Amino acid sequence: MFKKRKYNNIISFHDNLMLKENGEVYALFEVPAINLSRTDEEAKETAKAIQNNVFVDLIPYHNGEILTLPMNLDVYARYQVLSDDLADDTRELAEYLFDGTLDLFAEEMGSPYEYRYFMVIPLKNDHISTNLIKTLKTTFQLFKEQAIGALKEKKLFEGWHEEYELLNETLTSTLSSLGAKPTNQSQTLFINRYQYLRGLFYQREHEIHMMENSVTNLEEGRKRYFEDGTNRLGNDYGESVVKALPIAYLPNNVSYFHLVEYLQTLSFPIEINTKYYFNKKRGWNSIKKKAERALGRLKQTQIEAYEKDSIQNDNIGASVQVLGDVIQRDNANETFLSYLMTLVITGDTVEEVEWKQDILMEKMKAFQVELSAAMGDQPYLMDKMTYANDLLSTDKNWIQPMSVESFCENLFFVTEKVGFDYGFYAARVDGTNTNYGGDFEKALANSNNLVFFNPFVVNKEVEGKITDNPATDIIGETGKGKSFLAKLLFLFMTLMKSRNLYIDPKAEMREQYLKVMNDYKNEPVPDENASEKEKWSYGFKQAIVHYIEKIDFITFDAKVETNHGVLDPLVFLKGDEVVDLAKTLVKQVLPKDYRNIDFDTVFPDVVEQFIKKREKGEQVGLLSVFDDLSKHENEGIAKVAKYLISNSHRSILSLIFSHGENTAISMESRITILEVQGLSLPTEQDSPEQYTDAQINSLAIMYALGYFCTWFGRRDKSENTSTLFDEAWFLETTPAGAHILKEKRRTGRSFNDFTLQVSQSIRDKSEAGE
Questions:
Q1: pTM given for the model
Q2: Pick from 261, 648, 582: which is nearest to 431 by CA?
Q3: C-beta separation of 17 from 25 below 8 A
Q4: What's the rounded Cα separation, in Å, for the pair 570 and 664?
Q5: Which 8-state DSSP code applies to residue 152?
Q6: pLDDT at position 484, please?
Q7: Is the pLDDT of residue 467 over 70?
Q8: Has residue 5 got a pLDDT over 50?
């Protein structure tokens, strides 16, 4: 059945302000969601306390509404923005990744979405001109009768917002604790239009242009109600089925309720429309008087049940306690409000909406929340949910009265969003506490919260971002996917305009990558009868082959003479850094029995002498320094130098101790994977006292690699660089290693160098003194 169209009654917009036919003005604000983990209870309590304070400050505005909107994520547009930063030589693979993820989203979730919060609050101005109100009413009546055109109507309204600018600024200040900001004109127009586009495909810019042309286009579209308790919205692209489900009853105890947070974890979008008004403190209709009357009726019911020796309903006793609590809170001068919370679900068919309704009601049952199907009240609910339409004391159904503090237990304005607005699709956030037992496919199916990754945004000033430090850690236990994630993020970084280095101490990537490349090279070419999916898959694999061919694999192998000295401080570093690393390396590999304070004193000065020789073009390295010190008149100094010379010839230390016979490794390739053969790294269970000589020497190589990464990131300020250091926990567990990584982090921002370190445990950092 069709229902007669009911106009919204908004007749003009200006920035975030909305003017209604009766002269009332409402302000629209977007509230940025606070990013909270579901397990961070302390942060949640802080968020609720802030919200409580803000709502108490909003009492003079009498009414308001909170919009929790699952808004479409235009991933294609985001990829278009990201494409400007793609590197030309790997663009082919990046575009295949874009196409593949867009198809994946369409298949698994239809239209991706994200939750955004808005508040609509009436601006009260007791000094508004009565002549203006009369003019507005008369003008809009004529306007509806089409006696004048839109252009003339706009002229008559010109300047109406000026009387509200100060009130708007005051309200903005009141909401500042939430980080709320007034919407701009385009946002205000679109958000108002959005309520008539639920579940429909739309073009955002088209909708805004319609609204800019004429305010009467606000409700442009098809709107129908049916006796089966569903609504239909339609536009040129199709039709959607819409159902509004009001909350009928809540549990008596709403402590740690967090309903709004929980609803966002469901696998389909749910719009949450919450309208409220503050209850009067005094009078017949005050919350206290209503509670006292209800309490009197319930107590009489209890007495009658006792006299008849009947079984008393537990709900009556609980209700008595709740009403008593309300009266006590009111006596303590707590603020109360009444609110209507409506959950809106959409679908392409009635069956889809019924399926979502069944799931939603089942989930809410676990929360002791009763939802009403409201089959006969859909027209009322859809009209009542219209933005800038106040909830009134005359509205009786599904109204929830409670203190402001209890109202905030819903936990509005939070999200579990991870990542960036623009970037490569990397993962999804599972907002539940479910243990999937390793079934990652089920976990993915239960989440529509997409994670996008763009490393180089970290180093740019982005609104809402806390820091500009381009350093990130991947932390987790052995075998839990750290290396997989590291390789995925490195792939994303190499697809962008940047120079990239991957430190692979386990020497496993070359073999893995070349195997994939050879397998894909041998893939049969699809014939003309192949499906589009088969052809796309073949093209994707060939793009991977082309990508791997552009990687420069470098192996540091002590058995290869041309690798001797590649990590020698005198070979690839300059200035004080040579001295610092040389001291660190010697201290690492020198046994306690050989420690000598005289050597420690002389060694830096001699290194500086050889730095000058290197600068003049002489072929020298740390072995040259040791040779010089082995002839020292001090026997103790000579003994230490001779030990270092003999030890370097028989081990992996030849990579860091040399005569400078080899030049530094060229890093001109845009993508470099550097592996080290022969490392014998300790396990997390090994204590430093138990380290073997091979493990001690391997850690020295890791220190040199840390300095090498720093040198790589500092070479050119004009280009983005990224360094991914696998197995970085070996450095983070020692003070010397932690210092090396800290230095790299410190220079990352100024040199546009993104650092990603893979560690086993967060304890690594605390143990290293970070």
A1: 0.79
A2: 261
A3: yes
A4: 10
A5: H
A6: 87
A7: no
A8: no
Structural tokens at position 286: 């005050």
Over range 533-553, report the average pLDDT: 95
Query: Which of 366-375, 498-507, 746-755 has the least mean pLDDT?
Result: 746-755
Say what angle helices 597-615 and 576-589 make with each other, to 10 degrees: 140
Q: Rounded CA gap, 456 and 467, in Å?
A: 13
Residue with tokens 């570093």: 573
* Angle subtended at Cα 88 by Cα 86 and Cα 92, rounded to the nearest 5 degrees: 85
Surface-to-core class of residue 191, CB atoms within 10 Å of its CB (0-12 exposed, 13-18 middle, 19+ buried): buried
**Residue 472 carries which side chain, given as an amino acid letter?**
T
Q: Is the pLDDT of residue 585 over 60?
A: yes
Angle at 549 between CA 546 and CA 550, to 5 degrees: 95
Under DSSP, is residue 500 helix (H, G, I), strand (E, B) or coil?
strand
Position 229, amino acid: G
Averaged confidence pLDDT in the chain: 83
Q: SS in 3 state form for 336-394? A: EEEEEEEEEEEECCHHHHHHHHHHHHHHHHHCCCEECCCHHHHHHHHHHCCCCCCCCCC
N-to-C CA span, the chain: 68
Nearest Cα to 12, choosing from 192, 265, 170, 242?
192
Cα separation, 649 vs 559, in Å, equals: 10
- The CA-CA-CA angle for residues 413, 418, 420, to 5°, reads 105
Angle formed at CA 748 by CA 744 and CA 751, multiple of 5 degrees: 120
Cβ-contact 320, 299 below 8 angstroms: yes
Q: How far is CA 119 from its chain centroid?
A: 22
Tell me which residue of 345, 362, 340, 367 sits closest to 258, measured CA to CA. 367
Q: Give the pLDDT confidence score for residue 725 in this predicted structure.
A: 84
Residue with tokens 């409201």: 374
